[in-house]
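Worked example

This section walks through a single chain of length 110. The input is the sequence exactly as stored; nothing has been trimmed or padded.
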Amino acid sequence: MGIPLIVSVFVLVAVGQDVQHAPTVAQCQADQRLWSSELEDDAQPKPEVDVLRKWTRAMQDCEKVDTEHKFSYYNTIGEIDSELLLRMVHFLSRHSLMADFKAEDASGKR
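Given that input, the structure is written out below as tokens.
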């Protein structure tokens, strides 16, 4: 077995493991209800940014699978976006970057 063949087999196996399947309608609806309630519960700590971004991608996939409840997924994406935006604003404030942001925005750097 030559080196190119071994590398080819390794690449095919590695690529094959990244295949993702569409979520089920039941899974989408359960995730949407759970994640929305977690985002609305101020007493509960919120997940880190990478988790929230995964939730957004999952809800986008769910919009395609469960078109009848598309608005619910869209609403949850909006809740996630709001949480992320709030964190970014707090980051800018904590690090005294809000003035820099405003100045660049005023100068047209968008």
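What to look for: The two ends are 55 Å apart (CA to CA).
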